[in-house]
Amino acid sequence: MTHSKQRYRKLLVAFVCTLSATASLAIVSQVWLQRMMRGQSPSASAVNIAGRQRMLSQRISLLAKFYREGNLATKPELLKLVSQMESSHEALLQGNADLNLKHQLSPALQQLYFEDPHRLDQRTRAYLEAVRTLLHSSSERERNAVYRQIEYTARSSLLPHLDRAVAMFEHEATQSIDTFTQTQLLIDGLLLLILILQALFIFRPLVRTAKLEQQLQKAKAELETRVQRRTQQLQTANQSLRHIQERLELAIESSDAGWWHWQVQTGELEWSPSYIQMFGFEEGELQANYDTWKSLVHPEDMVWIQEKLDAHLQDSSGPYAFDYRMQTKSGEWKWISNLGKVVERDKQGQPLRMAGMHIDVSDRKQSEVKLHQINAELQVAKEAADTASRAKSEFLANMSHELRTPMNAVIGMTGLLARTSLTPQQKDFVDTIRGSGDALLNLINDILDFSKIEAGKLEFEEQPFNLKLCIENALKLFAPKAFEKNLELAYLVEPDLPCGIIGDVTRLRQVLVNLLSNAVKFTETGEVVVQVKEVTDESALNSDLSSSAQADHHLLQFSVKDTGIGIPPDRMHRLFQSFSQVDTSTTRKFGGTGLGLAISKRLCELMGGQIWVESDLGVGTTFSFTISVKAATTIEHFPDLDLQELAGKRLLIVDDNLTNRKILTLLAETWQMRSYAASGGPEALELLQQDSNFDLAVVDMQMPDMDGVTLAKQIHELALEPDIPLIMFSSLGVEAVSTATGKSYFSALLNKPIQEAQLGAAMVRAIADQPHKINPTAEPSPALPNPNLQSLRILLAEDVVVNQKVALLILKQLGYEADVANNGLEVLAALHRQSYDVVLMDVQMPEMDGLTAARQIQESGALETRPYVIALTANAMQGDREKCLEAGMQDYVSKPIRSEELKLALERYIAKGN
Prior knowledge:
Layout: H1 2-68, H2 75-94, H3 107-115, H4 120-136, H5 140-254, E1 257-263, E2 269-271, H6 273-278, H7 290-296, H8 299-314, E3 320-327, E4 333-345, E5 351-360, H9 362-418, H10 424-455, E6 463-466, H11 467-476, H12 479-484, E7 488-493, E8 500-503, H13 505-521, E9 527-534, H14 536-540, H15 547-551, E10 554-562, H16 596-606, E11 611-616, E12 620-631, E13 650-654, H17 658-670, E14 674-678, H18 681-690, E15 696-700, H19 708-717, E16 726-730, H20 740-744, E17 748-751, H21 756-767, E18 794-797, H22 801-814, E19 818-821, H23 824-833, E20 838-842, H24 850-859, E21 868-873, H25 880-886, E22 891-894, H26 899-913
Parallel strand pairs: 7-9, 13-14, 13-15, 15-16, 16-17, 18-19, 18-20, 20-21, 21-22
Antiparallel strand pairs: 1-2, 1-5, 3-4, 4-5, 6-8, 8-12, 9-10, 10-12, 11-12
């Protein structure tokens, strides 16, 4: 500390001395520079006087010229100028204190004035003498001669030498200034260098020493504070350690644990009292050594314990822990959990001392034994549950087959009967049976779907399909019922949505059908509207998908909105529950199993979405659900229809329903048409009277005050030029127009709900001036024999006589004959007798089922040509279709057999053959 202070004082003294020397040098240099600056003044005066001399000589020459020409008034001025030039000349040569001129010329100027051949001193004096002579000349001739001499002297020698004199004086002054500047820069540089050296070698160490001194003082203060704090912490820690030690000793004494120390080299052991008491011994009863401990360990456990101890003694990077049995004083065995570690080694790395703990874990071991027993029992129960689940699946498959087999006869026979000549009453009976059969089949399907969902065996397809076509097909199922109740059915899809999506069209249609069924059932007046929009951006905020996955991901929201009776708030919780309905009373008006919404909820969740409901009692209900899909670029809106012809056309929309007007307006905007909407016939007529320049009109049939036919008639009576093509929408279809005259007003008659493709085609035909009556949507026409289909050799494998009869009649209507086999053995025998193109194979048959028969057909090398096998099955469980295809069948038709589905399967075979 003393040395640091002495060094600090020496640096401070050196700094003061150096700073004083620098200041003195600066003062001296400034005084010297001031003297040098004063020395520059004579040089500057000499330059000015030399330049003034040259100017005087020019003025003298000019005035001499005037004097020679007779201007005698210039004589006084000439005399004055000659006197001035002469005094300036003398001042330059001899020096003049008044003019601040030095007394001695430089060697160069001395030579110019006195030594050169053209001595400037001599020339100047001769020039001035010639001017005086001019002033004393009396005759003009004499003046002219003298002037010529003056002019010659000035031009030839005086002026050039005066210029040289001015240049020399200026050069000497410049050199003097340069010398002064260099000297000043040298002095300034020397002062700067001194200051830099002073900062580097004196000031910086001085500052650093002062800073270190300050830091040292601060560190000392902090160290003292930390020492005080650490002392307090150590005191607190010691006190806490004592408390912990006391609690640890108390815990060990009161628990089933004990500590031990083992001197590895000598074998001596030190046990805690609780350790000895753990085995029922008193203190002093046991010799504290390794052999005593070893004698208490179970012989079976000692083998592997010795191996673990030897391994730990070799490498004790971490503690060891294992459980084993030890014998008590009474001869019983206790389970002990041993935890230990080598805590001391010698210089050679050999173990010296180990320490650890023993804990009695007998209760835990007994619990583990019980747990193993429980797990074994659970495993047995699980196997029993799996067996029951398999039995349930097999039972459902069998029940599906047993239920669908008679349903095949009911639906098949009624379908065949409906295509025969029947009286109106008979047709009503057949339709009633067919409707009840379809309802019963739907009920069976709901129960099977629910069972599949409960068993986790419901599968989904991933196929591209047309979104709008899926919605239209679902709506068409309820068009007759909606017409009976005078309800409006419509759907609205956002224009920016992809036309095609990838997913399971059957399951999506199933959810829509369930919701539409409820909406139509519980709505007496008004409308049922399906709306679809994309909510991908809303869900992306909480999504864990990557950006690349979100780019290909679409979350679509479907809403089915009705204007029905609504749902009471206290009954909302009953929705989406299995076998639960809002109204459970025996006097309830509406029936149902209560499975539809529960199945829809699970289907939506399995398709990556959810379902919810909003309802106002007496106002209406909106069921909304979402599904996660991908866009299908291979699906087009109208692949065979050119809608460019509609672009720019003016469309008149006449409909009393606001939703339908909105849907038609959005469709027109999508097709780039200009649309104008009217809510009724009178408004439409008024609009046409004001502006008849419309290319097309879409008219609703059922409207208050004026129906569609009456409106069409009045538009026709307006005799507009050109005539406006009319398209009529009706829930009745063609039947809405009872007369041929009424039909002639329209270019097309279309059924509700509005179908985009059908409407677009009708508009294109109407714009193209090609009126084409579009038949209303109705039930599929009976499948008639196609004379273009090639003749097929068909073998029907079916064990139920009624099903044989149904299938043969359906094939006959399709234009085919078939042979019959009652089981798989008869199928193989028939194929060995002759070849068949197609085998319609029932799956469940006696003696040999269809799957076994199909496998043997594929494995048989005796058959020259293997037939095309189409599975006929009433099974509806997951994997049934895959089992059929794996067995070697090429196609699959489910029971009850429908003629349209069977026809498509045969057409697929013919297409493959071609």
